[in-house]
């Protein structure tokens, strides 16, 4: 039965994930890597309190582990100055039984998160007052992918990995190249990146990440029911998704922003050497230093010589 | 009959002065078996003995051979080849050299044997038959000899006797599976631990890459127009690559095309095959991997000769039309050991050089001068594959963009459009398939026409249409991450306090068996420690250092640099 399902799954998933060869996975075992945005500058300005957010997310994480005995869960905190693993369900320390009032998951995760936040605060770099510095999403995505590669190495039947980004802070443009690198690497190893974005505007980075890797991008309209959104949309494993009516993407913004004025453009000039994008014609590429327009000069000179 | 290829004879130097080719001019020493090489410094090998005649292969001015003949005295015979009929100085037996003793150039049908001898290291070999008792039909003997295996060879080579083995034995003999085993301290057999070797190889490769990148400002030819030329001549059906050269090429070209488009999303590929001395263009330059792979898989049949010139001419004609900013390249997968051309190949090579086409060749048989010359002239690389895995390695080396050479393509600004993906559910007629499709298309920003896939060229206004991820896919070539420093276990012991014992990327313990620190690497920028597997993954696929990305401090440092 399972084997048959896998065949169906393979064919159905082809439609959602272009150019993704199907892999051999252990049945129904999920490896969920969650990146948790803990940027204090964002949470202090955001109307929805972090404590409330965390309590709903913790309930969701617990339900993931309860869905299957073999399910694995990794939580990586995405801070403002650093990133760190805060929970790993496979490590032996986290297998302890409930300590008094709280399950081991909660107490360990909260303990590590406290430590992480304290460390993150110490590393704090100066930033312009009044602005919210971006969280280091590129770092936590890179760490998540490294962990998933380790899971792939673990044996012939690795669990099905996926990444869930719980992000609130707006995109940091300086991370563009790094995030795109992580997205392409995830696409190559057929790891879907789901994203639940709770900030005010849509995140173009996460939209692209989910679109390219075949994951789900969703922006919950009401944060009071966050747990409900998480458990219905993001708790389902890859196999079950084929049978669900999941939120459709509202369209992905693939427009580029030019290197010179950071404007979003739908037509522009691209340097043939380094592929930098410009909104107007330049004589020299500011990224790689190549001088443009030699082609026509050379050609005309050659023509002149030929005539002579 | 007891005659062997003599070790001392084999070791003798090759004297190319074997001119004349007639035994009269050759001083010969004849030695009877058991006595040995009788003093003459000739180099020769008896290849066959037949009752009363001896076949000798001679290299060098003097010949020596060993005969087994019951008519000869056990002390042996030595004769002076200078005279036509001579008697042995030792026993007085007359040794006549008949017509057949003329050193006859190895006949056509003897080529195979000649090759065997060349394999032993002799460049010029001659075979002649010496008649001891004037009773000789050369041709007959030669025929006999041709059918007989070369004894010395058989003993030297145990690979060539595959015909004697059963099929199941042969697979083991060819696989050499025992070579993948080694003995451990307690004498148990274990598979060889290849991870350390593999990692060392990978680091060496990385270092050479880093060295080339450091020499000049990084400019890569990111917009490439590549023709893959596949030799489907008769030589491609050889089975020295398993299951056959052709099958291996087919499989690896498919892998290569996918990898190529993954790394060079704005580039174009075309396919050319050589068959029956004619080159055919089976796909025009295009950006869709599937169409190339399907076209190639349908054409995998081989026959006839290969023609390098015809192939290059086709590539030349096709690549002359591309825009000047594109990098023109040809990758030739050549199985044959010859080229059968209608004209002067050297002229064509010069034409390629003039048209700035970078030609690279991967040979499947042996190195050929003309291929090497072609690659040297046009700035490409030439390599010869040893086996299947080596071939795969070699072909995948051509996937990352080569460093841009200023004279090869001029920098230019290309006007491009970044179409937006239309919302799911909207219906429009696409220009690529000319049929109505619901949702999922892109709209050209200039002429507002619908296309199905990116990257492409607008069919109406000719604008190059791409999406920003296509550009971003190439950016890692421009911003490569630094090589990590290796941390040896001993140095880690000295300052073990400062290291955590887990990999920063995957949290794997860096301790090998027995709680000793194993091999690891460290990022010179963020000083985080990584395991070897992560090191490879980070540099080959991710192109991000998780340590640098997850610390704002090191990031600002890199930005200021």
TrEMBL record, chain A:
GO terms for molecular function: zinc ion binding. It is found in: Nucleus. Pfam families: Tfb4 (PF03850). GO terms for biological process: nucleotide-excision repair; regulation of DNA-templated transcription. GO terms for cellular component: transcription factor TFIIH core complex; transcription factor TFIIH holo complex. InterPro entries: TFIIH_Tfb4/GTF2H3 (IPR004600), vWFA_dom_sf (IPR036465). Keywords: DNA damage, DNA repair, Metal-binding, Nucleus, Transcription, Transcription regulation, Zinc, Zinc-finger. Its main location: nucleus. Belongs to the TFB4 family. Component of the general transcription and DNA repair factor IIH (TFIIH) core complex, which is involved in general and transcription-coupled nucleotide excision repair (NER) of damaged DNA and, when complexed to CAK, in RNA transcription by RNA polymerase II. In NER, TFIIH acts by opening DNA around the lesion to allow the excision of the damaged oligonucleotide and its replacement by a new DNA fragment. In transcription, TFIIH has an essential role in transcription initiation. Component of the 7-subunit TFIIH core complex composed of XPB, XPD, TFB1/GTF2H1, GTF2H2/P44, TFB4/GTF2H3, TFB2/GTF2H4 and TFB5/GTF2H5, which is active in NER. The core complex associates with the 3-subunit CDK-activating kinase (CAK) module composed of CYCH1/cyclin H1, CDKD and MAT1/At4g30820 to form the 10-subunit holoenzyme (holo-TFIIH) active in transcription. PANTHER family: GENERAL TRANSCRIPTION FACTOR IIH SUBUNIT 3 (PTHR12831:SF0), TRANSCRIPTION INITIATION FACTOR IIH TFIIH , POLYPEPTIDE 3-RELATED (PTHR12831). This is General transcription and DNA repair factor IIH subunit TFB4. It comes from Phaseolus coccineus.
From TrEMBL, chain B:
Keywords: DNA damage, DNA repair, Metal-binding, Nucleus, Transcription, Transcription regulation, Zinc, Zinc-finger. CDD domains: vWA_transcription_factor_IIH_type. It is found in: Nucleus. It holds the Pfam family C1_4. Residues 523-543 form the C2H2-type domain. One of its GO terms (molecular function) is zinc ion binding. GO terms for cellular component: transcription factor TFIIH core complex; transcription factor TFIIH holo complex. GO terms for biological process: DNA-templated transcription; nucleotide-excision repair; regulation of transcription by RNA polymerase II. InterPro entries: C1-like_sf, Ssl1-like, TFIIH_C1-like_dom, TFIIH_SSL1/p44, VWF_A, vWFA_dom_sf, Znf_C2H2_type, Znf_RING/FYVE/PHD. Its main location: nucleus. It comes from the Eukaryota. NCBIfam families: ssl1 (TIGR00622). Belongs to the GTF2H2 family. This is General transcription factor IIH subunit 2. It comes from Phaseolus coccineus.
